[in-house]
Amino acid sequence: MDNEFCQICGCHEPIEHDARFSRAMGTACSSFPAPASMDRLAARSRQTGVSTWLLLFLLLGLIFSLAAWWAKPVRQANPQAANPRTSPLEALSPDGRFRAVANEDGSIVLRETANGKLWGGVLRGREGAVQYLSFSQDGRSLVSADASKTISLWDVADDKLWGKELRGHTDRVDHVSFSPDGHTLVSASYNNDKNIRLWDVASGQPRGKLHVDSTRSRYRHMPFSPDGHSFDPAPNIKQVSFSPDGRLLASANGDRSIRFWDVASGEQRGDALREHTGDVNHVSFSPDGRLLASASADGTIRLWDVASGQPWGELRGHTGGVNHVSFSPDGRLLASTSDDNTVRLWNVASGQPRGDALRGHEKLVRHVSFSPDSRLLASASDDNTVRLWNVASGQPQGDALRGHGRLVHHVSFSPDGRLLASASMDKTIRLWDVASRQARELLGHENYINHLAFSPDGRLLASASADKTVHLWDVASGQPRGELRGHMGAIGHVSFSPDGHLLASASDDNKIRLWSMAGDVRIDQRNFTREEWRELMGEQPYQKIFEDLPEP
């Protein structure tokens, strides 16, 4: 309750809750108690010398407010009010040329990705906010799901509905998408409906239904397989990590799994690793690439053999969910952070904790980073501070670094260890000089910042934000170098490949994107040149990533 404040006087005193009073008057502090606590108000008035007439006036006002509230009919909750959108819902066409944007009034517009200009007219369906948007594979059709539980099909070229509206779900539709051939739709509703439905696009008739339990709500998307013959829930991808040789990506997922991806082909390698009983929050490769550590909301850390995918060990000691794990550069230690407000160090060889937990933060610890020489450890916390720790002694290295106005999501040392970057919910990045403890502030994101990554040469800093963008910064000057757009959801993680040629980003849109860092900063909405292809892919035959776009 520490984030709540009194809706009457605006103070930050401890909140006292009474269900009826809260619904009538809003959340109130101890200065404005609930009706069941009027005796305390009388006592307080006597202590402060407030007159009896003033007390009666306050009582009458409260009684009239409650009476007016009880007289009102109960209104059904608006599902959009429970989860208000803070930014427009968007979908990107398969060729990257157009962006469909759903506005709060339920209308949909198409904009050119390159310049943001409107393309065509405004699409208007039923009343109610749009819940989901998706293009067909050929980009000619758009499907939308709105708050009225209706699925609508749109002809992109003619700006009009085509086919019949699809109805059948009994609650809001959380996801809808086309099969690769465009003949079938899959839609999913997870709240009270708990059904996945298949539809024939041409006739609008249902083709099948699958009931899912409530645990399926952790899945955000229901993509078809490439051949269109099956579909499978895609996990909420929380974070990705490159292997030291740059050939593999590991992803931490909200379906309690860990998955390996082949960087060259983009395909998943092997089966998902499933041992955790809670969401996997973070994964980290050991410096030699042989082990992978995973941190989970189930309060455990697991070590995996990368080659075989088999469990290698389990580390227990935290009393809350584990948020982050990081190997020391020499690979001997593993650091972890937890909801229990602590940082722990582990001996990798034995799997045993090294010393007591590191205590000092007043709230949960989100992230931890070793200095390149393994002597220092930096931690980021919800108490708005960054702390430095001496790894050998386990003691704090000076006072906490203060300056952020809200919780700190991430910390990262520069490759030379002289700088420490921190990212916060206050929408700022701070670059700290480790020796002097002085900071520079980088501004540019429009929403909170989740993650940071230095390029291997230390010249660039990449930042991932809830504003759906990745920003690139020149470390020496602190000036922006570029902005990468393409994700449809908040971006939770960025990671440079070991050679610095690629940048990976993971988003709430359940996409992992790879960006080319060769030469000038470029986004992935164009094909590689043949020179770039040879640099990145070696002797593999040249391929166009986007068939509809020309070779540069």
Query: pLDDT below 50 for ≥5 consecutive residues: which ranges?
Result: 1-57, 62-87, 213-234, 519-525
Spatial order of the strands forming the largest sheet: 6-7-8-9
What is the helix tally? 5
The average pLDDT value, as a whole number, equals 76
Radius of gyration: 26 Å
Strand content: 35-45%
Cα distance, first to last residue? 55 Å
Large-scale geometry? globular
User: What is the makeup of the main sheet?
Assistant: 4 strands, antiparallel
Percent of residues in helices comes to under 10%
Structural class: mainly beta
Number of strands: 41
Please describe the structure with a list of short key phrases separated by commas or semicolons.
single chain, 552 residues, mainly beta, four-stranded antiparallel beta sheet, 41 strands, 38% strand, disordered N terminus
Describe this structure in words.
- The chain has 552 residues and is mainly β.
- Helix content is 9%, strand content 38%.
- It contains 5 helices and 41 strands.
Describe the secondary structure blueprint for this structure:
Layout: E1 15-16, H1 19-25, E2 28-29, H2 38-48, H3 52-71, H4 79-82, E3 89-92, E4 98-102, E5 108-112, E6 130-135, E7 141-146, E8 151-155, E9 160-161, E10 175-178, E11 184-189, E12 195-200, E13 206-211, E14 219-221, E15 234-235, E16 237-242, E17 248-253, E18 258-262, E19 268-273, E20 280-285, E21 291-296, E22 300-305, E23 311-316, E24 322-327, E25 333-338, E26 342-347, E27 358-359, E28 365-370, E29 376-381, E30 386-390, E31 408-413, E32 419-424, E33 429-433, E34 439-442, E35 449-454, E36 460-465, E37 469-474, E38 480-485, E39 491-496, E40 502-507, E41 512-516, H5 530-537
Antiparallel strand pairs: 1-2, 3-4, 4-5, 6-7, 7-8, 8-9, 10-11, 11-12, 12-13, 14-15, 16-17, 17-18, 18-19, 20-21, 21-22, 22-23, 24-25, 25-26, 26-27, 28-29, 29-30, 31-32, 32-33, 33-34, 35-36, 36-37, 37-38, 39-40, 40-41
